């Protein structure tokens, strides 16, 4: 057999085997083709990306606004101006209790000048206050009032009890006016006084005459 005959025979045998394979196993080619078609024609869905959840920070408490406005000034009773001494006395509130220097002052006003005009009562109070500041007398109201030999109503260093009558309540109000310096006394610099009916012959400077009293420094 020549070389060309042998090559033709091998080619024929190869075609025959290939035909037998295609006839006997049609499913293999079909499945292979379907797999190829499926992988090339049908899109494969990609996994959906879940957006990341960003945690929100908790709401911060709001800072209260700071009031920078200055508070209104407080007006004290020292700033009150009165039209007259009578108005100043009438405006005083009765204290819950009358004791200490207020009681000593009111008692001196009562016993020495309860029948005098308000200006005369205030002048008596002014004498006591001036003495506390003079350096020649005790420094407290009660010590000045109860000083031995100064006021005749004082007995053994003690002030007699006074009924809570209208005249004493007026004396308390006058004492409040004097101690708070709500009204200027016409005997502003006086340190001594005596009744008009007596003539002690004092060699002092006369400051004022008010009602039945004469005031000196």
Automatic annotation (TrEMBL):
Domain Cell wall hydrolase SleB, chain residue ranges per copy: 115-216
Recorded superkingdom: Bacteria
Record InterPro entries: Cell_wall_hydrolase_SleB, SleB_dom1
Record protein name field: Cell wall hydrolase
One term of GO molecular function: hydrolase activity
Keywords: Hydrolase
Cited Gene3D superfamilies: Cell wall hydrolase SleB, domain 1
């Amino acid at each position: 057999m020549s070389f060309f005959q042998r090559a033709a025979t091998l080619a024929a045998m190869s075609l025959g085997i290939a035909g037998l394979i295609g006839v006997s196993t049609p499913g293999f080619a079909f499945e292979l083709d379907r797999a190829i078609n499926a992988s090339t024609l049908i899109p494969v869905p990609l996994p959906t990306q879940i957006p990341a959840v960003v945690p929100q920070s908790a709401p911060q408490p709001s800072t209260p606004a700071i009031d920078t406005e200055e508070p209104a000034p407080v007006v004290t009773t020292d700033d009150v101006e009165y039209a007259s001494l009578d108005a100043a006395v009438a405006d005083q509130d009765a204290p819950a209790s009358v004791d200490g220097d207020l009681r000593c002052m009111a008692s001196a006003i009562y016993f020495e000048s309860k029948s005098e005009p308000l200006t005369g009562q205030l002048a008596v109070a002014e004498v006591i206050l001036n003495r506390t500041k003079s350096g020649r007398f005790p420094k407290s109201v009660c010590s000045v009032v109860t000083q031995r030999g100064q006021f005749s109503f004082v007995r053994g260093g003690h002030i007699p009890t006074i009924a809570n009558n209208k005249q004493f309540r007026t004396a308390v109000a006058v004492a409040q006016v004097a101690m708070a310096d709500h009204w200027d006394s016409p005997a502003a610099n006086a340190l001594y006084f005596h009744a008009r009916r007596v003539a002690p012959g004092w060699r002092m400077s006369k400051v004022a005459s008010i009602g039945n009293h004469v005031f000196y420094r």
